[in-house]
Specification:
mainly alpha, 69% helix, 0% strand, elongated
Length: 553
């Protein structure tokens, strides 16, 4: 009940944010050969998560609507919450503490992005596989003979599945070592290393498979400065900022008041020097780490809880290397298990002295967290509500203003959309998409001259912004300047040679100038385009192609 009821109001939510490109409009989801996902990257192109993609494909086969996807996510969260309960009973060795930890995990508002945001399923599946890995490994430590080998093999299979759901599951190897230490503290180092070696082998095999499919172990191309400015700074700046983000994460786990779907530039200020926030974060985190080390003997449960926070964040904290985002709440789904373990242990310690107070405190926390989750889920109802909430939470984020402007534009609120597009440009002047958005808003209002000016402004900010080339060419084509339109389409194809919309419009421009052979050659080139297209683009291209072919008869 705790894991499901707070999320039921999310069932009516639409596809929002990354759900649109990754699921709703992703041609990979409609493919006839679903197992091909094992040989292709996970959108947007540098991630390898075939198991997650398979679940999306299965969902789409049953129901293309968002409700079915939301229902599966809630079911996965329920399963993960039950695994947290089972694992907490082993690690905390106190049923009441385990219940408190799992109950807090079930209702924690920080999970809204992972559960109610459909693409958060990668986090759910990775956590499910990771926790199953740890529980099966714990059973293997207790068993003997054939049962021991069976549980151990099951643990390795669960780990492999977790990796195929999301890359960050690699950190489960470290959690296996922590569970081994907690449940078998007297085992010798040699036995610990022998138990860990097969997990390392599975992890290396996954990395080899990823390298084969993706072409790199990390991101082939660094993320843009808008998404993660830490990918474009020196290492000390990245480390200082990462420490601040880590402290922010702990603050969000403790008091999840201001939640946001976006923390891109400049929602998180980059620490270019050792400012007050960076020094405070360093000292506070060092103090917590020191406390966890001191607790190893007297309160090993707290040391384990600290490890369950730190280890899963090791690959996503931008400390070792920059990732695709500077900060994201979905990244706290598995690490929050550690926070909940610590909270459960502390509540149980309080209950030993003041039972009524501990029970009242737990009940209060559950009610407050569940209420916050319900309220947060409502933000994910549709793009307009989500982006309005995001702008309110992080007004310094250029991307939040841009996304809100796009949603406003789709609701025909072009004047308000232009205001937020301009705000995005103020926050991040190189933001070509925001300048393009202003042009599109003016075009919707019938002001083609202003639209053309802003499309050209977008190209001045980014000469390879393909959409601007396309729209400029279409405006020129409508004005009868077909030669200029052809030049615009060609300029766009220089940076995006397989763009189907540019190709089909180039064919039309050639035909309009009497170049039948050129139009035919362009259509032949279009037929060989390897890039998969979403359903809307397929329909537009097919209709335009029919009209062009009829014109060539």
């Amino acid at each position: 009940m705790l894991a499901v009821l707070p999320y039921l109001n999310g069932l009516d939510g639409d596809f929002v944010f990354d759900d649109v490109g990754v699921i709703r409009d992703n041609p990979q989801i409609q493919r006839d050969a679903p197992l091909a996902v094992f040989a292709t990257t996970y959108e947007p192109g540098a991630l390898y998560r075939p198991l997650t993609m398979l679940t999306y494909i299965a969902n789409a086969r049953l129901d293309r609507g968002a409700r079915g996807f939301h229902a599966v996510n809630i079911a996965l969260h329920l399963a993960v919450s039950l695994l947290v309960l089972a694992l907490a009973r082993r690690l905390l060795a106190a049923p009441w503490a385990a219940f408190a930890a799992a109950a807090l995990f079930a209702v924690h508002p920080i999970h809204s992005e992972a559960v109610t945001g459909i693409v958060g399923r990668a986090e759910l599946l990775a956590a499910l596989g990771g926790l199953a890995t740890l529980l099966a490994f714990a059973r293997a430590l207790d068993a003997r003979g054939g049962a021991r080998r069976a549980w151990y093999a099951g643990s390795l299979v669960a780990f492999a599945l977790a990796l195929l759901a999301k890359e960050s599951a690699f950190t489960v190897i470290g959690l296996v070592a922590v569970v081994h230490w907690r449940l078998a503290p007297r085992d010798r180092l040699v036995r610990r290393l022998a138990a860990l070696a097969p997990f390392v082998a599975v992890g290396l095999a996954y990395l080899g498979l990823r390298l084969l499919v993706v072409g790199s172990l990390g991101l082939p191309v660094p993320p843009g400065a808008l998404d993660n400015p830490l990918a474009h700074t020196d290492a000390p700046t990245r480390w200082r900022t990462a420490l601040i983000v880590l402290w922010d994460y702990l603050s969000l786990l403790t008091a999840p008041l201001r939640l946001s779907a976006d923390y891109s530039l400049a929602a998180v200020p980059v620490a270019t020097d050792w400012n007050t926030r960076a020094i405070a974060a360093l000292l506070l985190l060092a103090g917590l780490a020191g406390g966890a080390l001191l607790a190893v003997r007297r309160a090993p449960e707290l040391a384990v809880a600290a490890a369950f926070i730190a280890i899963p964040l090791a690959l996503t904290a931008n400390l070792v290397f920059p990732i695709g985002t500077i900060k994201a709440e979905r990244l706290l789904y598995l690490p929050s298990v550690g926070w909940c373990l610590a909270a459960g242990w502390l509540l149980a310690a309080l209950a030993a002295q003041r039972a009524r107070l501990a029970h009242a405190l737990l009940a209060t926390l559950l009610l407050l967290f569940a209420a916050r989750t319900l309220v947060r889920n409502a933000d994910w109802h549709d793009e307009l509500t989500l982006y309005a909430a995001t702008v309110a939470a992080v007004p310094a984020s250029a991307k939040a203003h841009h996304n809100y402007a796009v949603a406003l534009e789709r609701h025909a609120e072009t004047e308000a959309a232009i205001v937020h597009y301009r705000r995005a440009l103020d926050l991040y002047p190189p933001y070509a998409a925001a300048a393009f958005g202003i042009g599109r808003a003016y075009a919707l209002r019938g002001d083609e001259a202003a639209a053309l000016g802003w499309y050209q402004d977008a190209l001045a900010r980014d000469a390879q912004f393909t959409k601007a080339h396309l729209q400029i060419g279409l405006l020129q084509q409508r004005r009868g300047d077909v030669g200029a339109a052809e030049a615009s389409f060609r300029a766009g194809l220089d940076s995006d040679p397989d763009n189907p919309l540019l190709l089909v419009n180039l064919a039309a421009a050639r035909l309009a100038q009497g170049d039948r052979a050129g139009a035919r050659a362009t259509l032949d080139r279009l037929a060989a385009v390897p890039v998969p297209m979403d359903e809307t683009t397929v329909a537009v291209v097919a209709q335009a192609r029919r009209e062009i072919e009829e014109g060539m008869r």
